[in-house]
Structure formats: C-alpha cells, structure tokens
Amino acid sequence: MKQDPEAAIMAMVRRFYALSLEDDLLGPMFRAEISDFDEHYGIVADFWSHSLLGTDRYKRGTPYTHHVGLKVEEVHFDRWMAAFEQAVGEELPEDLAGLAMQRARHMTESFKMGMLPLPTPKVRPAGAPA
C-alpha cells in the first residue's frame, strides 16, 4: 500500500532532524536555535508539503529570511545536505524524492550565496599572466 504523501513528508522531516541532532556540528546549532521541536517539525513539514505537493499550508514567507542570521560555514551546508539526502532516500517515495533533492540543492546554493562570505580574490603579481 502506498504511503500518504503528507505522512511521508513528516517522516522525512523527523528523520532529517534525528540525523542532524546526532551530528556534532548541526546538533548543537539546532538545539540552540529551536525551542520547540514538535512545532518546528510542523513548520518544516508545511514548507515541504507546499514545495512538493503544492499545498498552501506554509505561510511564513521565504525560508531564507528565517535562516539568514545563522552563523554558518560551508561545512554546515555539506552536513545538512548529507542528512537531508539520507532522510529523503529513507522516507519519501521516489516521485517526491527527486523533486525534494532538486529543491534542496537549489535552496542550498541560494543560501550559500547569501550567507557565506565571498571568497578572497587571489592577487596576481604585477605582470603575471592572467
């Protein structure tokens, strides 16, 4: 029997946070930022329901505005994507999994551009070839 897509999304969200909370980098950051995990799971599930199923439950603007103040580095994004990809692979049906990963990769690249400092340009000595 095929699992209800909404139940699969909530299972994916819970699995993602279970994996992230075990992570030595993400776990402490999430615990410091999230005061009510059950409420947060609902918000995140609403976002993914909107993104994957087209529902109108997520009414909180863009996710970026809720994350922009976090102090993150490239490795945070790498760990986030690894946990997300594992949770998606374990919990979402194939038709939703591909779309979820496409959306997550796009969001990750967008968040990186807004949240990470620009790389320091390499200075070439005067007269060096380009």
TrEMBL record:
Gene3D superfamilies for the chain: Globins
SUPFAM superfamilies noted in UniProt: Globin-like (SSF46458)
InterPro entries recorded: Globin-like_sf, Globin/Proto, Hemoglobin_trunc
Alphabetical UniProt keywords: Heme, Iron, Metal-binding, Transport
Pfam families, per the entry: Bac_globin
Domain of life: Bacteria
Protein name, UniProt field: Preprotein translocase subunit TatC
